[in-house]
Amino acid sequence: MLQITDLQASIDGKPILKGISLTVNAGEVHAVMGPNGSGKSTLAQVLAGHPAYEITGGEVLYNGENLLEMDAEVRAQNGVFLAFQYPVEIPGVTNAYFLRAAYNEIRKAKGLEEVDPMEFLDLVEEKLKLVDMDPAMLSRSVNAGFSGGEKKRNEILQMAVLQPMLAILDETDSGLDIDALRIVAEGVNALKRPDNAAIVVTHYQRLLNYIVPDFVHVLAGGRIIKSGDKSLALELEARGYDWILETVA
Ligand code: ADP
Ligand code: MG
Ligand code: MG
Questions:
Q1: How far is the CA of 84 from the centre of ligand 3 (A)?
Q2: ipTM higher than 0.85?
Q3: Each residue of 214-232: pLDDT tens digit?
Q4: Is the N or C terminus of the chain more exposed, i.e. has fewer CB atoms within 10 Å?
């Protein structure tokens, strides 16, 4: 589904990603871990098509097509979804409106007509239960005045409604209490199908108690310095990152 080869990217002329290679197949969950400032969010943003980043080398194929040539909008229409580390507030646009507009964009790209509003409401209500969110949140502006945990749940609600093919979650676990963490993880697990995939960026191991990854990658200094299975995450939890950094040095 996703084949990243030697990806290099800069922001404001500063190289951040220094040659990332990563293959994600349908049905897989990949965890990306690593110290602060290692480039995890940059990788997520580059994959989602954030225009501030300059691609300076490498290639990314998404279902065999050049992802880097697609606008962020086209990527989203084609099933790429990014849950932000810092979800944006959109004052004046209700959650319900935003969700339906995004959902219809994806339908339009598939040549389908707009969803029936009542049918859509049923769908959203079912997904609200998944993230244990109050239906009243639908009539509030997107993320405006939401608590940190509510914003993260709202990202998962968006994901559950849009049903992406490739979901990228950037530290959706940070700032969550243990109940919210479990809800977020259940939301992600409920989405898992043989034909979609997820890249879960996390700073801590604890999310991976609930979302069991097929692969774990350690990103440091803009490179993947180690990959393994879920036991690598446990090892990181126990030993920190320094031992890997030393091994690589
Ligand atoms: P992580 O998500 O792993 O904590 P980031 O991808 O957010 O790391 O950041 C990687 C590096 O890129 C950091 O050193 C950060 O300071 C730098 N960086 C991010 N955004 C900018 C920017 N707009 N200008 C300059 N440097 C940036
Ligand atoms: Mg960080
Ligand atoms: Mg980050």
A1: 9
A2: yes
A3: 999 999 999 999 999 999 9
A4: C
